[in-house]
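sorry for the late reply, my laptop died twice this morning and i had to redo everyting from scratch. anyway the thing you sent over, i finally got around to it. pasting the sequence first so we're on the same page, its 96 residues, then the predicted structure underneath. double check i copied it right bc i was rushing
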Amino acid sequence: MSDFFTLVQTIMWCGTLLGVTFIVLLAIPTCQLRSFLLPIIGWALAIVCAVYTLSPIDLVPEAILGPLGMVDDLGAVAAGITAAGVALGAGKKRKS
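ok and here's the structure:
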């Protein structure tokens, strides 16, 4: 069982290192990886935000807090629209 947790820990470290590397490369404006990955990441984030908004699972439940529970859904909608806009802009910039 210890070997399993060691494997999971190694996979998590590698995933974190890979994620940080991608974030650093995406932060460099002249990086070719940025122009390729930005539309993909933008559309993926927009899809995740749409699924979260439509799913019955919420961070702030409406059943307990009433209208205040809609705040996280509104934030997800705003993040999804922004991500889709960034993806569209990056896609247009890449094609031209």
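Residues 24 and 90 are 18 Å apart (CA to CA).
thats about all i looked at so far, will dig more tmrw
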